[in-house]
Amino acid sequence: MTDDTPRKRMVKPPTGGLEGGRGKPARLKTAKQRTPSQQAWLNRQVNDPFSAKARAMGYRSRAAFKITEIDDKHRFFKPGARVVDLGLAPGGWTQIAILRGVTNIVGVDLLEVDPLPPAKILQMDFTDPECAPRLIELLGGAPDVVLSDMAPNTVGHRETDHLRIVGLIEAAIDFAIEVLKPGGTFVAKAFQGGGTDRLIAGLKVHFKDVRNFKPKASRQDSSEVFLVATGFKGR
Question: Looking at 189, 204, 214, 233, which residue is catalytic?
Answer without folding.
Answer: 189
